[in-house]
What we know:
It comes from Penstemon davidsonii. Pfam families: peroxidase. Belongs to the peroxidase family. Classical plant (class III) peroxidase subfamily. Belongs to the peroxidase family. Ascorbate peroxidase subfamily. Keywords: Calcium, Disulfide bond, Glycoprotein, Heme, Hydrogen peroxide, Iron, Metal-binding, Oxidoreductase, Peroxidase, Secreted, Signal. It is a single chain. With 338 residues, the chain is mostly helical. It has two domains: 161 residues, Peroxidase, domain 1, CATH 1.10.520.10; 139 residues, Orthogonal Bundle (Peroxidase, domain 2), CATH 1.10.420. The protein contains 14 helices and four strands. It has a two-stranded antiparallel sheet. It has a two-stranded antiparallel ribbon with strand order 3-4. It is globular. About 4% of the residues have low confidence.
Amino acid sequence: MSSASTAILTLVLVFGAFLTAQCHGDSAPLVVGFYRGKCRSIDVEAVVSGVIKEWYKKDPTITAALLRMQFHDCFVNGCDASILLDGSNSEKTAVPNLSVRGYEIIDTAKAVVEAICPGVVSCADIIVMATRDAVAMSGGGGGGGKYIVETGRRDGSVSLAKNVDLPSPSISVSNSIKAFANKGLNPTDMVYLLGGHTVGITHCSLIRDRIYNFQNTGKSDPNMDSALLTTLTARCPQNSSTSIDNSVNLDQNPLSSMTVDNSYYRQIVKRRGVLQIDQDLALDPLSNNTVAAIANGFDFSTRFGQAMIKLGGVQVLTGKQGEIRRSCRATNKQTRED
Ligand code: HEM
Ligand SMILES: *[C@@H]1O[C@H](CO)[C@@H](O)[C@H](O)[C@H]1NC(C)=O
Ligand SMILES: *[C@@H]1O[C@H](CO)[C@@H](O)[C@H](O)[C@H]1NC(C)=O
Ligand SMILES: CC(=O)N[C@H]1CO[C@H](CO)[C@@H](O)[C@@H]1O
């Protein structure tokens, strides 16, 4: 092909791609500070932050609640607040969602922003902003500061329990890497994001196999530190006849179980991981070197924030897609029909 015809072909291709982008121009990139100037001169992010600060003073466990909520929202049908929709068959009714909490926090933040500027701020953005604020209150987010979130998400209208396909606590590191890759997140992102387990709890029902009958051996997980095994045995009796399902801190350093820091990694390298995936992360050759580097002080705070920003970009609705819900618990169509 002559260089002239190559040039023409290139032009046609580039222009064609440009036209295609225009035709599919319902979406727009997320941006930092999307709400600037969209609610008079009011700083919407500061308003949300105020709500989270008040809530955190009463209940510092909201950081764990919101981190898990953002993970579950973004992993199922993208970060579109589908996890917030009520309904007999919606995502929040699916088994892995049973213990997701914090819905009232989002309701409160939404009520406050709706009172100031109705129909402007999406529920999907509120989840991401609120999580960032709570992480900052818990000491995370880059030198004690906040990571800078991008905004401009819009809310979805599809929320189905059958779409919920979240990793189980016994997923292997290699399958977990695949699950994250399906969302555009690389293995390093995954290792940092699992650092979310530096706060919060799990229920005994999800770790009893590791304590008493690991992979049907009738024994505990051989990779579990013996002191941790003693602690967990006491906290999670084998044959608890009651329906009470005790909780156990995911970060087993008692001084740090409420703080967003690298302590989770320091624990798992000492074989003090609580969930099976936590322990395996420190041992599997696919992730052990990254874990060791973070445990030794490699920049957790900044990198965790960056990974959260990336998580917040998974399959988002933007531009003219979706809607800005009036109530985070219902689509606008449902709200009108009520
Ligand atoms: C392979 C990936 C993951 C698996 C298998 C997993 C699994 C789990 C399980 C089983 C629990 C305990 C639930 C309960 O007993 O109530 C839990 C809790 C939690 N997860 Fe994950 N998780 C994963 C990734 C993440 C990510 C990426 C984040 C956030 C960035 C996250 C944040 C949390 C938090 C904060 C809690 C504690 C919630 C609370 O205290 O209410 N997890 N996770
Ligand atoms: C729990 O139940 C199993 C099976 O019934 C039994 O083998 C085991 O000894 C019991 N453990 C305790 C601590 O009672
Ligand atoms: C990670 O695992 C590989 C393979 O087992 C091993 O050679 C390496 O030393 C491990 N790295 C760390 C930091 O333990
Ligand atoms: C928060 C929430 O909606 N939890 C629901 C989880 O699913 C169970 C069973 O479907 C419901 O009873 C809960 O209300």
